[in-house]
Amino acid sequence: MATTMTSIRLNIQLADEAVKVLGAKNRTEAVHLALKEIVALRKFKNLMARHAGKLTFEALDE
Length: 62
Description:
mainly alpha, elongated, 62 residues
């Protein structure tokens, strides 16, 4: 995995909550896990859209 140092502004309370919810070791890991989750979710939604009518999925929060 390619990594680079970068500087971003984070909502510390949200980042710390993400650490707890995701079971991450630290904020950096939480950001990486959250990015992986959102990419996977978007790919899944795109897959569902391409196969509309053939597949069904009921999300808990929608």
